[in-house]
Automatic annotation (TrEMBL):
Designated name of the protein: histidine kinase
Keyword Transferase set for record: yes
Keywords for this protein: ATP-binding, Coiled coil, Kinase, Nucleotide-binding, Phosphoprotein, Transferase, Two-component regulatory system
Lineage: Bacteria, Pseudomonadati, Pseudomonadota, Gammaproteobacteria, Cellvibrionales
InterPro entries on file: HATPase_C_sf (IPR036890), HATPase_dom (IPR003594), His_kinase_dom (IPR005467), Ig-like_fold (IPR013783), Reg_prop (IPR011110), Sensor_HK_TwoCompSys (IPR050482), Sig_transdc_His_kin_sub3_dim/P (IPR011712), WD40/YVTN_repeat-like_dom_sf (IPR015943)
Keyword Cell division among UniProt keywords: no
Gene3D superfamilies for the chain: 1.20.5.1930, Histidine kinase-like ATPase, C-terminal domain, Immunoglobulins, YVTN repeat-like/Quinoprotein amine dehydrogenase
GO cellular component annotations of the record: membrane
Broad class of enzyme this protein falls into: transferase
Residues in coiled coil: 804-859
CDD domains registered for this protein in UniProt: HATPase_UhpB-NarQ-NarX-like (cd16917)
GO molecular function: ATP binding; phosphorelay sensor kinase activity; protein dimerization activity
Length: 1052
């Protein structure tokens, strides 16, 4: 077995892994880059391709070629000779007839340098060629007549011309190319007719190198078109006489043998990968030269003009960038070849023996111990032999096995090979015999394409047929048992078009369908559980099922990407993760799955191959741009053995060595291309965005941004964007334009990332957006507005608060009034109650006083007057009975005396009820008599003081004043225990003021007043009511131990 494997490797690997030449493809023809004579190509520091041509200057982003304008706002000439980008990022454009122009990508403007014969500090000529920048940032530019050194700051030009009288002047005026020393302190100048000249900063002129003389070549060697520096002492020159190697330190030169009958004319040189010098020729395409070994190779040895080769035209310019070689051609535009091309084994169909019979490989089956079997759609079954060739059966050309469309293969443990085809199931025995089982052979197999085959651990054969369902052939049996979809049975298959089979565990079978999702079936007894969109399957078309070495189950779909499942111990299927285009897959369809030695998965699709590392999520794409010769792969046409991985597709079989290292090269640059904004009217203003780092927008202004992953590939890219570094990326799919509208005012950091054709994500430099708010959205305006609103709110609040406070004060006032009223009502109630009580008491006292008065009058009438009348009657009766006149007179006199006494008693009673002096002699005299009488009777000193005229008062006023004085004096005598009482009267125009003051014991006015209200102090109450009844007022001024003063004012 080891010897067989070695033989296989010896024969197979050279076929599969031999290096292939560069494949050149025309660039940008369908995207507007349809130039003919391309004179120079350059990829700037942003990754954009600039193409100089006779038709103008173009910028190319892989999607669209944008011509740069000419005229007043652009270039002065369409015929462009050369391009150069300086360290500051300016693009210098050499024209054929209009001098030199400098393009500023930041402002999208040109500045121009022209020849003026009258100004020695302008260009020597308007036809410009090669350019280079020195250490001080000055640009050196060759022209058809002379060399120019331009100071970009001042615009001043220093001219260098050929002067036969000056030995160290330029050797020739026709300067075609300029090359700077590595440090920029010297310049190499290629001339047409004068060889090479060198200028050094510390020299007083140019050093001359006559290549024809130094190399022994004809004079054409001094017509130099291109220069390439190597090391410290060597310079290569592309000339009319081929490639010249100059050792400028020794002053020697030699012609480099590039093969061919004649040395090629070399317009351009460029150093490429692995230290090789790449050479553009006028008639032999592109060559590469190894200066160490002297090896010369053609970039593509095929005849010029053939597929994948450059046209049979002069190649004028070379440029390397990002693993790509760009070639400008005379007559057929720009071509590109990718250098970082992987080496794939490719087994193709052909007419020769040992080749595939058909180019469409639809089934592959291999294992570590068995040879590789390949089925093609139209070529039947073929086996890869130990010598690396395919079996060339059949002996009979009409054998259907070898012309059938084989779409599935399986080798049973018995060594029997089974091949599913579009006509049924082929059985291939080890002895070479074979037969076909179809839907009409009577063995129970349904009609349709046999899409999938599986031999279970129990040696049962399972056959999936497109349209007829699933069929089982137990070991040792010859009749198939069918399982189909039944609409009324939920545990039956979900559909009848079977596409994939996988034994998931003991007695468990996974069944994929074309239109009905996935089924997890128990083989004995038969019962299925469906797994569709509701369970996480992203698409109903299951194309492939696979189980890796760790036991994870993988399902590929044609529309939903890749699914990873976990089979639980309870026999249930659980989705762990899904990969789709958003996650980096080439497309939504997965055709095949094969695990590599490192645990990564190779996924075949209709766009190429993807290698996925599930642990990290890392992706690596293999597509046409990476050299993959087949990109459209067929479902389930994938397998591996110990040494190789195999993938079948339209175009043949691809082989990849197992264990191939997974690389992660740098991603292609992603850049913003153009920015479009609304202009006046309905116009749209578009400007390049490549050099913009910030932009200011008005709120509500539309901004449209286009971008590109600059790998110049034809395959679609995937893009995402975000407006802040902390935000999640938002998918745009393959759309390469983003329109932003009505961004909220503020600052944003727009970033775009794109996935290139190789599956690598690159991110653009951020574009800072400042959205300027309108006046009403500015902070100060909003602050002012908020302040005004707050002020208005505060004013309104204050107004309302004032109103509320006013109403509150009113309510408080009303409440206070209410409380006062309640208090007054309560006091009045108490007073009323007291008054009622006092009134009742007073009434009782009045009744009692009346009764006492009556009793007193009655007693006086009865006891005094009655007895006196009785005595007078008896005395008068005795007069009648008197016997003598003397006795009679005596009796009469006694009677008269009694009558006088009764008259006096009646007068006293009358005087006690109303003093007659009050009416007879007036108030003052009546008071004097009365007070004198009281003083005589009580012994208390009573004084009367009268001031003013109070004689002319009415009878009622006199009575009131007299009674007030009478009662006040009486009260003082009864209660005050005083020694002196002073009565004062004062007459006024409005009334009479009365004052009665004693020096007695005094009293508490409040306590006495409460008693008065209760009707207990009838004297004081009588005084008060008598004064009020007369319309006057009465006041008490007293305190315990300080006597009492009663004041009253009685109006006239």
């Amino acid at each position: 077995m080891l010897a067989r494997s070695l033989v296989f490797l010896l024969f197979f690997l050279p076929l599969a892994l031999s290096a292939r030449p560069l494949e050149f493809v025309p660039l940008g023809l369908a995207q507007g880059l349809d130039v003919k004579v391309a004179t120079s190509v350059l990829v700037d520091h942003n990754g954009f391709l600039w193409v100089a041509s006779r038709e103008g200057l173009y910028r190319y982003d892989g999607y669209e070629a944008t011509p740069m304008p000419t005229g007043r706002q652009g270039l002065p000439d369409h015929d462009i000779r050369a391009l150069y980008e300086d360290r500051a990022g300016f693009l210098w454009v050499a024209t054929n007839t209009s001098g030199l122009s400098r393009y500023d990508p930041r402002t999208n403007t040109f500045s121009h340098y022209r020849h003026q014969s009258a100004d020695l500090h302008t260009l020597t000529h308007d036809s410009i060629y090669g350019m280079a920048e020195d250490a001080e940032g000055r640009l050196w530019a060759g022209s058809q007549i002379g060399l120019n050194r331009i100071d970009p700051v001042s615009g001043r030009v220093t001219r260098f011309r050929h002067d036969p009288a000056q030995p160290r002047a330029l050797a020739h005026d026709y300067v075609y190319d300029v090359l700077a020393e590595p440090g920029g302190d010297g310049m190499w100048v290629a001339t047409i007719g004068g060889g090479i000249n060198r200028w050094q900063a510390d020299s007083d002129g140019f050093d001359h190198f006559d290549l024809a003389r130094l190399s022994g070549m004809p004079e054409e060697a001094n017509s130099v078109f291109g220069l390439a520096r190597r090391g410290d002492t060597t310079l290569f020159a592309g000339t009319r006489a081929g490639l010249i190697e100059l050792d400028f330190a020794r002053g020697t030169a030699r012609a480099v043998d590039l093969g061919g009958d004649e040395p090629p004319v070399i317009p351009a040189l460029q150093w490429g990968p692995e230290g090789r010098l790449w050479i553009a020729t006028m008639g032999r395409g592109v060559l590469s030269y190894d200066p160490v070994s002297g090896d010369v190779e053609s970039a593509n040895p095929d005849p010029l003009g053939s597929d994948g080769q450059l046209p049979a035209l002069p190649q004028l310019s070379l440029h390397f960038s990002g693993g790509k070689l760009l070639v400008a051609t005379w007559g057929n535009g720009v071509y590109m070849a990718r250098l970082q091309r992987r080496e794939y084994g490719w087994l193709r169909a052909g007419e020769e023996a040992g080749q595939l019979r058909h180019h469409n490989v639809t089934a592959v089956m291999s294992s570590s111990e068995r040879p590789l079997w390949v089925g093609s759609f139209g070529g039947g079954v073929q086996r890869l032999m130990s010598d690396g060739t395919f079996s060339s059966e059949p002996a009979q050309a009409d054998d259907a096995l070898y012309t059938d469309g084989v779409i599935s293969l399986v080798e049973r443990r018995s060594g029997q090979l089974l091949a599913g085809s579009n006509h049924g199931l082929w059985i291939l025995d080890a002895d070479g015999r074979h037969r076909l089982i179809g839907g009409n052979t009577g063995e129970g197999l349904g009609e349709g394409y046999v899409t999938s085959l599986l031999e279970s651990d129990s040696a049962e054969l399972w056959v999936g047929v497109g349209g007829s369902g699933l069929f089982r052939l137990p070991a040792g049996h010859s009749q198939f048992t069918g399982f189909t979809h039944h609409p009324d049975q939920a545990d039956s298959l979900s559909g009848n078009y079977i596409t994939a089979l996988l034994q998931a565990g003991e007695n468990l079978l996974l069944v994929g369908t074309r239109s009905s999702g996935l089924n997890l079936c128990r083989m004995t007894p038969w019962q299925c559980r469906r797994f569709g969109g509701d369970q996480g399957l992203a698409h109903h078309n299951v194309t492939v099922l696979y189980r890796d070495r760790r036991g994870a189950i993988w399902a590929g779909t044609d529309g939903g990407g890749l699914h990873q499942f976990e089979l639980g111990q309870d026999g249930t299927l659980r989705l762990l993760r899904r990969w789709s285009e958003v996650d980096g897959l080439l497309g939504p369809g997965i055709m095949g799955i094969v695990e590599d030695d490192d645990g990564s998965l190779w996924l075949s699709s209709r766009q190429g191959l993807t290698r996925l590392q599930p642990r990290t999520g890392a992706l690596e794409h293999h597509v046409a741009e990476s050299g993959l010769p087949v990109t459209h792969f067929n479902a389930r046409a994938a397998s591996r053995d110990r040494h190789h991985l195999y993938f079948g597709g339209i175009g043949g079989l691809i082989t990849i060595p197992a264990g191939t290292a997974m690389t992660q090269p740098d991603a292609s640059p992603v850049r913003l291309v153009d920015i479009s904004r609304a202009a006046e009217g309905n116009a749209i203003h578009t400007q390049p965005a490549m050099a913009l780092d910030s932009l200011e927008l008005d709120w509500g202004e539309m901004l449209s941004v286009s971008f590109a992953a600059l790998d110049f590939a034809k395959a679609p890219h995937q893009y995402q964007y975000r407006l802040q570094p902390t935000e999640a990326w938002q998918s745009l799919g393959p759309r390469r334009e983003l329109t932003l509208l009505e961004l909220s005012p503020g600052s944003y950091r727009l970033s775009v990332r794109g996935r290139d054709v190789f599956g690598r994500w690159g991110e653009s430099p951020a574009l800072f957006l400042n959205v300027v708010p309108p006046l009403w959205m500015t902070t100060w305006f909003r602050g002012l507005g908020v302040s005004l609103l707050l002020a208005a709110g505060f004013a309104l609040h204050h107004y309302r608060m004032r109103g509320l406070q006013r109403r509150n004060r009113m309510l408080e006032h009303l409440r206070a009034q209410r409380e006062r009223a309640l208090e007054k009502a309560e006091v009045s109630g108490r007073r009323l109650s007291q008054a009622h009580a006092g009134l009742r008491n007073l009434t009782a006292r009045l009744q009692s006083a009346k009764e006492e008065q009556r009793q007193q009058i009655s007693r006086e009438l009865h006891d005094e007057l009655g007895q006196n009348l009785t005595a007078a009657k008896i005395s008068l009766q005795r007069v009648a009975r008197a016997t003598s006149a003397e006795d009679q007179q005596q009796r009469v006199d006694e009677s008269v005396s009694m009558l006088d006494h009764m008259i006096a008693q009646v007068r006293n009673i009358s005087l006690s009820l109303r003093p007659p002096l009050l009416d007879d002699v007036g108030l003052i005299e009546a008071l004097k008599v009365h007070l004198g009488s009281v003083q005589d009777r009580t012994g208390v000193d009573i004084g009367l003081h009268v001031d003013g005229g109070i004689v002319e008062v009415s009878r009622d006023v006199r009575t009131t004043i007299f009674r007030l004085v009478q009662e006040a004096v009486s009260n003082a005598l009864r209660h005050a225990r005083c020694r002196r009482i002073t009565v004062a009267l004062e007459g006024r125009s409005t009334g009479v003021c009365l004052s009665v003051q004693d020096d007695g014991c005094g009293f508490d006015v409040n306590q006495v007043w409460e008693r008065v209200l209760r009707g207990e102090h009838l004297g004081l109450l009588g005084l008060l009511e008598r004064a009020r009844s007369a319309g006057g007022e009465l006041k008490f001024d007293a305190a315990p131990g300080r006597g009492c003063r009663i004041s009253a004012t009685i109006p006239l």
